[in-house]
Give the backbone structure.
Amino acid sequence: MIPELGQYALMLALGLALIQATMPIVGARTNDAVLMNIAAPAALGQFVFVAIAFAALAECYVASDFSVLNVYENSNSAMPLIYRLTSIWGNHEGSMLLWVFILAFCGALVALFGTNLPAALKANALAVQAWIAAAFHLFILTTSNPFLRIPDAPFEGRDLNPILQDPGLAFHPPMLYLGYVGFSIAFSFAIAALLEGRIDAAWARWVRPWVLGAWMCLTLGIAGGSYWAYYELGWGGFWFWDPVENASLMPWLAGTALLHSAVVMEKRAALKVWTILLAIVAFSLSLIGTFLVRSGVLTSVHAFAVDPTRGIFILAILVVFIGGALALYAWRAPLLKQGGLFAPISREGALVFNNLFLTSACATVFVGTLYPLALEALTGDKISVGPPFFNSTFGPLFIPLMLVMPFGPLLGWKRGDILSAAQRLFAAAMLSALGIAAAFALEHGGPVLAPFGIGIAIFVMAGAVTDIAERTMILRVPLRAVLRRAIGLPRSVWGTAFAHFGIGATLLGIVSVTAWGSEHIAAIKPGDVIDISHYRLTFDGVFDRSGPNYRDVVGHFTVRRASGDFIGVMEPSRRTFPARNMATTEAALMSRGVSQLYVSLGDPNPDGTVPVRLYFKPRVLLIWLGAIIMFLGGGLSLSDRRLRVGAPRPAKAKAALQAAE
Amino acid sequence: MTRKQRRLVLIGAGLGVLAVAVALMLNAFRDSIVFFNSPSDVAEKHVEPGTRIRLGGLVKDGSIVRGNDLRVRFAVTDGKTEIPVTYQGVLPDLFREGQGVVAEGALDGGGVFNADTILAKHDETYMPKEVADALKKSGHWKDDYAQRAAMPVTGAAK
């Protein structure tokens, strides 16, 4: 009964989406307020029905209803409740349902909170949102129905892929999807603006909070995925330049560019045409990401099923939406009016610089990710484009971006003074030079350029602090005045500083780990002692342990300082899941400040020895802490009063409101 | 600065950065691309010793020999040709005889493939796509694999 209910709810949602996709546009064209006003209630209704469908699937998983094919294939009654819930999106059908659920959620938010939007813009934007929703509802109902039944219900499910049975997966996919799908709002607003052929600075004010929110979720989602790969896959790597990872990085790069160009558009009414294009590109890359990951053209943990009809369906969605959007852009963009002038050295100039480098970096990732697919389709040659390609293209493009970043917030709008900015960054540059010297003196081995990487990271972080220090006039006015100024600063200024500081921290972590991480691989037997960095690990032996739906073979290690002081124990394990006859590596991590010791076990050899990988990862936690700081920065910026209130209401509307009271 | 000049500066800067990006990409494509080969491909194409390639196929039954210090020797076969492979390190979770494997490395002068990376899978029923294609080409694809691969099961090549 419950699954059927879910399916009907989804069909009703499709119906509402179709109404929402057509009526408001007709209304906006004919200036018919009644038709335009259909958009908001339809969006809310659509959200309610998708939510019912999602809740129905969740109930099937919670109740372990194995008569539903999707539940049978991906769940098991022995799994803890949290993993039964996360298995909803641990498979193709369920994850697509989560996708449309978030899409409908975003649409409902626009309908609820977009009360101060011009009626035509809101109607058009919600209609575009509904086109996307309708396409994906149709996709789910025709090719990926999560509610299919099995005639003879089995007693037990086949379990979720063990490597996905992890708390990290509770939050990584929903965050990532919030990011991907959040960009759909910027896309819908861009298309709506093109349909109207009119756009102004207020447009950027409406769109920026959505872009910011999506960007925050995407940042956290990517970082979460990276941390999951780090501790779950047992290799100690945090980024593989795997096509699936790139699929999430590309929208992030385009979204970051969009975030910055929208600032220029909001403040100076410039870069309108470019901002619209970025809004289209950011969501197109999200769609391409979905296609790459879900169609099975790439094989990885994320490619749940290889089914050509699904691939073709998603490809069709892609072609229609991206092709249609770009065609509309080519046709209508020349109508949009140009905005304010600015000198090359100015805040706007710095933001343009940011955009140029971010989009170029995004383009290199795009080429590196899709070239192998294109080549295979054209010549049949199978190639892999690995980390060396991305390191030697993405890296050089990011260095100038990082170097210029601290200057941006210090330059004035319209015309900036680079000399004065450079003077103010003197302290930051000195700190960075100190950092380089310290890295040369304290760290041994590693690439010669690595200390300069540290220098850049410190410059970025110190530059972010400089911005705040300059604005609060710290050390120049009494402390009380500094505090007052700090509180008085717009939150978006704090947000910028946090986000820039965060990217510096992430960079510091990445450079440290890649340059000075140490690795020790050996086959060991009980009693063996391994020295790594400043630590001494003793292998005490293995023992067995059992969990709800798995068995563990646990290795016991005692960790001491080189001087012999006891620090703690580490217990990496090999985990076997009988339901799938599969084993996973559960690495043991021990944090020492922001650095980590990492131990993972291999399959024991017949002679009784156990292969182990030991790593010392200096400052590795900064990679993800940096992402969290970026997320907080986004949150601060989002809480800025000017953004929260949105565009000011026209004076007339306000007067009318008062009159009504 | 007039509007026209500003636009020229912008377009110039954009093209400049794009040119740098393209140059970087072309340069990287020259040295960092790795071709995938089946054992038969290696034999037919006469892959030069020292060229980095990915070698994919099945781990031949009974071919795994473990040595000291995590050294391991095995043979990769596609049913027609087999190539001996050496590797030192911890093997992936589901590396087994008779299962699909992708090894990355280079051939030495004596026709032995020295792998520095072994990619296997994280799932019992998953076959790397490249390996599946190679096996189909050499006519050694068993329906058994196809059936397993057709089952909607999560596969991992990471």
Observations:
- The first helix of chain A runs from residue 2 to 30.
- Residues 182-370 of chain A form one domain.
- Residues 300-305, 645-661 of chain A have pLDDT under 50 and may be disordered.
